[in-house]
Amino acid sequence: MGRIISSFWISLDGVVEEPENWHMPYLDDELVDIISAGMKTNKALLMGRQLYDEWSAHWTTSTDDIAEYFNMVPKYVISSSLQDPTWNNTTAVPGDVEAVQKVKDGIDGDIQVTGCATTVRWLLAHDLLDELQLLVHPVVVGGKQQHLFEGDSPSHTLTLNDSRALSSGVVHHIYRPHPVHSGA
Amino acid sequence: MGALHAHEFITFDGVIDDPAWTTGHEFLPAMQAALDALTDRCTAIMFGRRTYEMFEPAWSGRAATDDPLAPFFNDTPKYVVSSTLTEPTWRNSTVLPYDSDKIRRLKEETRGDLFTSASGTLVRTLIADGLLDDLHLFVYPLTVGAGSRLFPETASPQSMELAGSTTFENGVLYLHYRLTPGVA
User: What's the ipTM?
Assistant: First the structure.
């Protein structure tokens, strides 16, 4: 059975949106090592519809070296409206717990969910998320940008599995969520 | 010239108020030691009015035998930042209406560093006015959703320096950020 893992670049004030505006000064070798280690172990990507639309348009035409990875890796898109996805190796998954659980059961390895806080909050609320990795950047972004958790998010308890400070001041945390539903 | 330090209990979704949520994690000797190391270098305390009103009944009747931090809170000169309080009853307390110039002067005139804790409104204002030098965050491995955040949407963008990072055995993290590099 696979594990669903979420990784975020996140600011000290919890912002996860538009990291390209605040994350660049911290993109050093240590951070690149963490990102590429994750890409090596991921067996598949899980994403929401919005990110699918953005990424399928971007990576299919990109000449970046990394484009091949995104085009080849198996991709699962949580969407009830997406039909016959055209991006290579993409499967649409209805947005219900059983369907996502089936994806997990069918993959032996890590499934990386990325980019979307609302998807991660939904996975957390339904005991589908196995690991939350945060790369906390020592920067306050401010403004009305999307936070990983918003004020109306339910409470969650997690176990801190590992934490390591990088020399740039970014701290890499690995959290394992506790089940929300008993018996899960 | 003293540096101004703020110590906060914070969830990893950034909430600092009403930290009843800390009770699920034992306050370990190592956490006490970290806090002691901070209070040992501080010769003055600054509180917001609400925190002062919560701390006075909690600490004024305690002695070192009850809690190792009791002498620090009771015997150290305390500045209560308030525009409404007039007659503080906790010993060694002085009312100080918020005035950034006066606080800057107080920092200059204090031998040793200054300590504050909780006091959300005060700490947010000190950060906005560039008066807070160091943030000492005890980050609990949980999210609570609702609650007042250390960094609200109105917070100004700012980068900080990670000065220290410690993981306690219970999954609480101690992250020490320097807001005014080169000053402390």
Answer: 0.88
